[in-house]
Amino acid sequence: MRMSKLFVQTLREFPADAEVISHKLLVRAGYIRKLTNGVYNFLPLMWRVLKKVENIVREEMDAAGAQELLMPFVQPSELWQESGRWDVYGKELMRLQDRHGRDMCLGPTHEEVITSIAREGIRSYKQLPVNLYQIQSKFRDEIRPRFGLLRGREFIMKDAYSFDVDEEGLDKSYEIMAQAYRNIFERCGLETKMVQSDSGAIGGSVSHEFMVLVNEEAENNAGENDVFYCTKCGYSANSNHAVSILNKAETDGKFEKAEIIDTPNTHSIEELAAFLNIPSTVICKALIYVVDGKYVLALIRGDRTVEETKLMNVFAGNDIRIARNDEIEEIMSASGFNAVAGFIGPKGLKNIEMVADETVKDLKNFVIGCNQNDKHLVGANWGIDIELPKKIADIRLVEENDKCVDCGAELKVTKGIEVGNIFKLGTKYSKAMNATFTDKDGKEKPFIMGCYGIGISRTAAAAVERHHDEYGIKWPLAIAPYTVIVVPVSDQDETQMKVAEEIYNKLLTANVEVLIDDRSERAGVKLKDADLIGIPYRITVGKTIKDNLVEFKTRATNLVETVTPDEAIEKILSL
RNA sequence: CGGGAUGUAGCGCAGCUUGGUAGCGCACUUCGCUUGGGACGAAGGGGUCGCACGUUCGAAUCGUGUCAUCCCGACCA
Questions:
Q1: Which of A29, A151, A216, A307 is least crowded, fewest Cβ atoms below 10 Å from its Cβ?
Q2: What confidence tier does A200 reach under pLDDT thresholds 50, 70, 90?
Q3: Which residue, A338, A306, A342, is CA-closest to A322?
Q4: Nearest Cα to A472, choosing from A552, A532, A394?
Q5: Are A132 and A114 in contact (CB under 8 A)?
Q6: φ, ψ for residue A268, nearest 5 deg
Q7: Which nucleotides of B are covered by protein (CB under 7 A)?
């Protein structure tokens, strides 16, 4: 391709509205252009990159025995009614009506559609297992799209769905996909970590995420997830799912008797601990949440933090948020109290479900709110002064330096970009949608399903997050839009142009994806653009051509070698 | 949903306080000159100043509303 004809516009400056480096660079280097909030045009260079990623995904999926198909982007509400998600999916689901007033939605994912395909097309266990996938645009009406391609509303995704006769089959399908994913990301030049993640309210399900770990020193940390990992044994999990061994702490408040005392203006644990001159670990924190519209009281030791996803799962919920002040007021008055946040406790509260984190059960002579403003109960003990909630669960956020449950070593935390997710669905959709097959024993059984996603456009953006420098992008070779760019320094120099054209034509003939910068620009412009766009290799034809020498630059390392034109070509052909 | 900020040419911005009919850099077009790290000179083209209403003889500028974008937050008691 000739740069003079390539549809690309590089910018001298970074776009003002971009925050993270992949967004800044992709816009500036002319790969993408925003159409509207969270929705981007993929310009020719970007489209080449995306096709590279897609093809790697395709090859590995096909090799893993999956079959590609394409499902509609617009889906009828009926299917979503059947699965029960029409009412629970929330505002992320982009709903619309057709001219007849029929409810439709833009596909954020395709479990419903694939399940309908399977129930029509699969009648017998003999047809199983089967794994079907597609690569397609998805639309999710995110609350707050940001970070360019990393969290857009419309994005390209590969989604695969497996159907098996039983759990063992699913385990096998799942492991095949996990291996395919490792291959895919490795081929894309991305180091990923497979971490355990939350699998939602479906009991017994398993899910893993593939995370690109983000450099901690990165200026703008694009990783939206916290990943906890063990320094010794390889355990790793998303913070919404991570577990740890309880850290040792003082759990005896050493108060001699239980009494309600004045604790004015102690709205936070820190203030309360400082006022009483006690460690925060002998305080029992009480928090009111709203899970699917119902109030829930969560108890946790004062030094720890509630992990909302874990708490939500205790109640098999779909949605969770902390209660607003007016809601707290409502709960208090319903039980005859008027305490505000900071003085809340479980004693005497009516019509509210309660759960206690494991951290609170061993507390002795501890401090807890008593639903009276500016007062706390000190020296409290479970079973004597206050009943311990029947429901006890792990609802706490793991913290760095907690101990690994598998080996006892220390856990560390890092930021990650989720580029892939694999999930054991079980029979959630097949049962709800009555998708069954006839098994060996002649009985109708629901499919055992799994689903497996990869964010194609996010993977490309993550690659930029990991591979760039102050001058621009450094594409991994496998997903670069072109392999090499030939740059004649001066288009006025006939020899330079002639040699550059020769190199270009030889590479073209050898089916190399090659660019030639034949623009009548000054050297600086061409060299800056080559670095910015991030082509892995550059062959610069300059003055030294009189000695039959050109420059061979590797973008990844910025290493420059002086070689003959033939040697440069040979280097490319031997990649 | 709450808070903050910003909307002026494709991109980055100034002008607004103190109303008088729009400007700078980059990019673009033409010519000259230049060609190893984003040159230079000359001449051009391009903007209903987000939108609506209002105040005024007159609004990019003041007021109200609205829309959009960006950032932060969405309550750890």
A1: A216
A2: low
A3: A306
A4: A532
A5: yes
A6: -120, 165
A7: 1, 10-13, 25-27, 34-39, 68-77
Nucleotide nearest to A522 (CA to C1'): B35
- CA/C1' separation A37–B53 (Å): 28
Distance between the alpha carbon (CA) of A212 and the C1' atom of B26, Å: 36
Angle between helices A44-63 and A167-187 (to 10 degrees): 140
Structural domains present in chain A: 21-222+416-465 (3.30.930.10), 259-393 (3.90.960.10), 482-573 (3.40.50.800)
What pLDDT shows up at residue A115? 95
Q: Nearest residue to B27 (CA, C1')?
A: A11
* CA separation for the pair A371, A109 (Å, rounded): 45
Tell me the nt nearest to A287, Cα to C1'.
B77
Please state, in angstroms and rounded to a whole number, the distance separating the CA atoms of residues A274 and A96.
Answer: 54
Q: Nearest protein residue to B77's C1' (by CA)? A: A342
- A324/B12 CA-to-C1' distance in Å: 42
**For residue A392, which amino acid is it?**
I
Task: Find the Å distance, CA of residue A37 to C1' of nucleotide B55.
Answer: 35
Which has the closest alpha carbon to A24: A11, A37, A36?
A11
* pLDDT tens digits, A79-90: 999 988 888 777
Give the span between the Cα atoms of A478 and A459, in whole angstroms: 13
The token pair at A214 is 């983000």
Å from the A88 CA to the B5 C1': 34
Tokens of A99: 């001219």
- Note the pTM of the prediction, 2 decimals: 0.90
Over residues A371-387, the mean pLDDT reads: 91
> What phi and psi, each to the nearest 5 degrees, are found at residue A467?
-125, 90
Tell me the C-alpha distance between A453 and A368, whole Å: 45
Residue A45 CA to residue A32 CA, distance in Å, equals 8
The predicted complex's ipTM stands at 0.91
Provide the residue count of chain A.
575
- Shortest CA to C1' contact from A544: nucleotide: B36
Nearest nt to A471, CA vs C1'?
A: B37
SS (H, E, C) A511-551: CCCEEECCCCCCHHHHHHHHHHHCCCEEEEECHHHHHCCEE
Residue A237: is it exposed, middle or buried by C-beta count within 10 angstroms (0-12/13-18/19+)?
A: buried
- The token duo for A162 is 């497996």
Percentages of chain A per state (helix, strand, coil), in multiples of 5: 30, 30, 40
Phi, psi of A517 (to 5 degrees): -90, 85
Q: Pick from A69, A54, A57, A173: which is nearest to A116 by CA?
A: A69
Instruction: Identify the H or E element spanning A321.
Output: strand A320-322
Tell how far CA A401 is from the center of its chain: 24
Calculate the angstrom distance between C1' of B46 and CA of A409. 65
List the one residue out of A454, A519, A434, A462 whose CA is nearest residue A4. A519
**A305: nearest nucleotide, CA–C1' criterion:** B76
CA of A36 to C1' of B55 (A): 35
